[in-house]
Design a protein that fits this description.
Elements: H1 4-9, E1 34-36, E2 46-56, E3 63-73, E4 77-79, H2 81-89, H3 98-113, E5 117-127, E6 130-137
């Protein structure tokens, strides 16, 4: 169950780190794990990039590919990276429109982790000749937070 460790088990031992863990069969089954923020007094930005993210088109069942960039300013916790990798991998067999997938990932991380701020950029590769980029953020970033450009160039075709 998502967030179970944070609310009920404490945060002494990571759930997946150092263990052989199968890929969850769905995003709903995936459990995100959170650990205490080691720098609670500092304002900083954490970035995860997933340049080979995949999900399935809900109409055709064909694979959709994206470069995801997730930035957040931690609050009390940070997301444990192996659990995030397993969560993102669980979308390989998940059918969803680009907008639903991108915003759903950002919303789940924000709701469970409760960072000060979070944004996600979903840079989807074209299917049918149209690239779709989807952006979501939880609100205005905290004053003084350095936000680098997400570094993903707009789609330019073959040159």
């Amino acid at each position: 169950m998502p967030g179970q460790r944070r609310q009920g088990r404490g945060m002494s031992e990571p759930l997946f780190l150092g263990q052989t863990t199968p890929l969850p069969t769905s995003p709903e089954e995936a459990r995100l794990d959170y650990v205490p923020n080691p720098r609670k007094a500092e304002l900083f930005c954490v970035r995860f990039a997933a340049p080979e993210f995949t999900s399935l088109c809900p109409v055709t069942g064909q694979p959709d590919f994206a470069h995801l960039v997730i930035d957040y300013a931690p609050g009390e916790t940070i997301v444990e990276s192996k659990s995030l990798k397993l969560f993102l991998g669980a979308f390989r067999n998940h059918c969803g429109f680009h907008e639903d997938v991108t915003v759903g990932i950002g919303r789940r991380l924000f709701d469970e982790m409760q960072p000060q701020w979070l944004r996600i950029g979903g840079y989807w590769y074209p299917r049918g000749g149209i690239p779709i980029d989807v952006f979501w953020q939880s609100g205005s970033p905290p004053a003084g937070l350095w936000l680098p450009d997400q570094g993903v160039a707009p789609y330019r075709g073959r040159g």
